[in-house]
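Recall that a protein's primary structure is simply its ordered list of amino acids. Everything else, from secondary elements to tertiary packing, is in principle encoded there. The following example makes that idea concrete.
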Amino acid sequence: MTTATHPRTTTATTLPQPADAPGASRPRTGPEVHLLPQTNQLRALHTAVRDRDARREDFVFYTGRIIRMLTEAALDLLPFEPHDVTTPVGRTYRGLRFADDLVGVPIVRAGESMEAELRAVVPGVRIGKILIQRDRTTKQPRLYYTAFPEDIATRQVLLLDPMLATGGTALAAIEVLRDLGVPERNIVFVTFITCPEGLAAVGDRFPGVRIVTSAIEEGLNENAFMMPGIGDFGDRYFGTDR
């Protein structure tokens, strides 16, 4: 695969097409897939955003609440190291701090909807970008743009994209990071909703990548839409749906 010029490029690059098909393999299970606790509060928030008649401002507000939960869950997967501090009463608190530097990498455009919540939780966090789109003729994902810190290979990466369906875009983005030297174990893929087919695609090819999500859908329909689904997340979030 031809990789992007580091640290950024605007040249389109053909990326490998995943050889996965809906239902072809079982999703990865166990600790590498982290599903948020399915509480009544989370279900109520999902109900609000899945409603086809939801106002855009409600969609943005309630998805933001869920994205904050996802962000907190993802941060808990990162490495920590001991760090003691002295409290105001002069005692020592045996604490922790993040062991490695962090970078958030939203997949443009929908992934940018998750950027604000990460910035709110981790002020000053470095932000990279990946733009990948599926070619209308070849149907293969193509890399159009990247921007990363030059030391990304030594950082923990939160890869942000609200939807993991067939897995094509996610696989292409992870491939870009791997080509830059980021170990699989340093990548946490944070996604709003996913499905068994998407989990299987990523798990089969990149078993070291951890996935954090708020919902696992029933599966894909004949048009590769997740069911019951949420619609086009990016269009609904940014107000470009018709």
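Confidence is low (pLDDT under 50) at residues 1-31. The first helix runs from residue 40 to 50.
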